[in-house]
Amino acid sequence: MPEDSFPVIAPYNFELSLKFSQHSRFEITDNTAGGHLRRLVNIGSEPVLMEIWCEGSVERPLGRVSWTNLGYKRIPSTGVKASAARMLCSDLDLKPFYSLARRSRAIRRLIEEFRGLKLILTTTLYEATAWAVMGQQVNLKFASTLKTRLVKKYGKGISHKGVIYYQFPEPHDLSGVSVSELQSLQFSRRKAEYITGLTRTFLDNRLSAPILSEMTLEDAITHLQSIRGIGPWSANYIMMRGSGHPNCLPIGDSGLHRAVQNNYKLTEKPENKLVEKLAEPFTPYRSLYTLYLWYSLTKEKVKI
After folding, report:
1. Taking the complete model, does pTM exceed 0.90, yes or no?
2. Catalytic pick from 4, 30, 219, 253?
3. What mean pLDDT comes out for the span 226-254?
């Protein structure tokens, strides 16, 4: 099995980041046995089983990746390393955010306790977009049930050494799927319409990672909200978890508002305007502000 390394900007705590990823999603597409992250991904058109971990310390991390080519063509290591580095947000420097956070009593405590925490991104933008829709107005457990059913029916499952690894479907896998077929998986009619609609948006090349990467955050949010079923919360979530943008603020997220109440010691859950005001000093790192507040809820043993 080929193996290689890639640089990760310090500080970085892979164990903590993986723990948050495990805590925040009942994830069928992630295998985290033994403290490593294993995902079935496409490199080019070839299915590849990747295993990602970190060596060294929080202050001197080194990303490591090994892979098994489950297809037929040779896979260059550059593509595998780039995919692994993207998932770990390896080029994101936390230090500027930490400089801002030290000015806030509430957030200073969190960066000290959770030093090196970063998001682990979804494998594709399409997965992040569909997952944002599935998570609307339902609890996490049911949203994860929907995702599991969707992946098992339309995604890819490959057995390797006695373990089945699942891959979230690509847009073309759902190109001919009807609203009624998704309803049979217990999607509401509206969510089924949203999923089929956003799938067409990807297939028509009106939405893709390269398209969003050419836009400012404001334009990307506006573009995402032009798609039926995607509002402000979903658009910010997609840019955080699918694109790794550092300045998103998913206003209206119940976990974020509860964490703000807890950490700022407010007597009641804050309104949207107050959350925006409290987050403003952390621009352009409001995604990290959100992440550290989310992680503070793990002490409550609450699924985010």
Report:
1. yes
2. 253
3. 97
